[in-house]
Amino acid sequence: MTYRLGADDLRKLFLFESLDAEKLDWLASQGALERVVGGLDIYVEGEPATSFYVLVSGTVSLNRLVHGDDLEVSRTSQPGVYAGAMQAYLGDQVPQVYSNSLRAITDVELFVLPAGAFAVAMREWFPMAMHLLEGLFFGMRNSQTIIGERQRLIALGQLSAGLTHELNNPAAAAVRATSILRDRITGMRHKLALIADGRIDGTRLQGLVELQEAAVKRAASAAPLSPMEASDAEDAIGEWLEGHDFAGAWDLAGTLVAGGVDVAWLDQIYSSVGADNLEPAVRWLTYTIDTELLMGEIDDSVTRISGLVAAAKQYSQLDRTPHQNVDVHTLLDATLVMLSAKIPKGVRVVTEYDRTLPNIPAYAAELNQVWTNLIDNAVAAMGETGTLTVRTMRDADALAVEIADTGHGIDPEIRSRIFEPFFTTKPVGEGTGLGLDISYRIVVEKHHGDIRVSSAPGDTRFRVLLPMTAEVPVGELTLEAPVRD
């Protein structure tokens, strides 16, 4: 049975008390009085927003889903409070779904107005207010979009600067090693000339070649020495070379030690080539070892450059389809490489990966943006020292990525606000307050996942939950107001 309220009944509700009789009569004809038993949901967050509700009597609570938990935001018995299809006046310009849940705590009576009727009343009765509200709503959304893009550009600039720095080190090492290598090869050509004009016994050449091959193998398999061990080994070789009247003995000792040469092996060379050819032979072998070490350094540098370029390519996903099956660990590693220049030397990075986890369907480049935001915040929370831990694990039917830091933690009073647009604890000019907001949208709205946070001084953890099999709808991420706390 449908119950109707009259104009006088509606005038008692503060929301309608300033309306004239004609408007009140129209509302009374469009809406109806509904009774709901205590303990039942009046409407549920995420469902299509079909009605606008005004409390007449009883007690209701407003609830929001906060990272998977149903949280009561407020409770009231004040007649005239309202909820429901609050943005019906915007029509199809925004998704028309309930942004919260309304629950009857006691038996309640509600004046229920269809969303369409509410939209008509707002547009026809308050045209100036409508223009102001629309301007405010879409102006703020556009501001979020512009600032969000600006934040991405700033982050890209910082990452590019860091990548340039990281690339410069191995590139400079390769250039330096190439220059030195050119000198060493010139020296080896000089020794070959000495053999050619007879100043080195050519009959010993075969033995020198065999020693050269042995030196190459020793250099390739030389075990790294501690600074103390290397110093002792250089002293022993330097003394041996001086004992055999080598000029610049100590200049040779460092290279020979780096190539795994010891006194016993020098004795073998002496036995093979004799005293007359000893110094040319040792210098020949030193050049050989040095060129091998330099080529190894060039190889390492070029490999490092290649790895950095591959990480940048993986991070940007420029050559990939937007939605694909991805290995989350590859994305995390690429992000850590890209952010390495921003992570202070006093911050230890620990990765704890469950490599048995499968690839998941995802928007890889946007997930990298999530990792960037979370890692950047974690590093900022720690300052110059601490431990950054990146974990992956299975959480029921989801793949979980956890970013943990040992920083100062999040104040409980602001924890519920950290995902709000423009909310930031950073000094003015250092943060836009959109990093976590954008991360939330990417994970929750685009991937149908969740972000949860737990925090105490010395242990803050952001856990991202991603479906392992669910299909993600294709579409661009928008920066309109999200359905959340």
Structural features, described:
- The chain is of the alpha+beta class and 485 residues long.
- It folds into 3 domains: 7-125, Jelly Rolls; 160-306, no CATH class; 322-467, Heat Shock Protein 90, CATH 3.30.565.
- The chain has 12 helices and 15 strands.
- The strands form 4 sheets. The chain has a 5-stranded mixed sheet with strand order 10-12-13-15-14, with helices on one face. A 4-stranded antiparallel sheet has the order 1-8-3-6.
- Helix 4 (127-196) runs antiparallel to helix 9 and helix 9 (278-316) packs across helix 10.
- The chain is rod-shaped.
Helix vs. strand class: alpha+beta
Helix content: 40-55%
Straight-line distance between termini: 36 Å
Quick one: biggest sheet? 5 strands, mixed
**Strand count:** 15
Number of domains: 3
Name the average pLDDT: 76
Q: What fraction of residues sit in β-strands?
A: 15-25%
Radius of gyration: 36 Å
Strand order of the largest sheet: 10-12-13-15-14
Q: Note the total helix count.
A: 12
- What is the 3D form? rod-shaped
Order of helices and strands: HHEEEEEEEEHHHHHHHEHEEHEEHEE
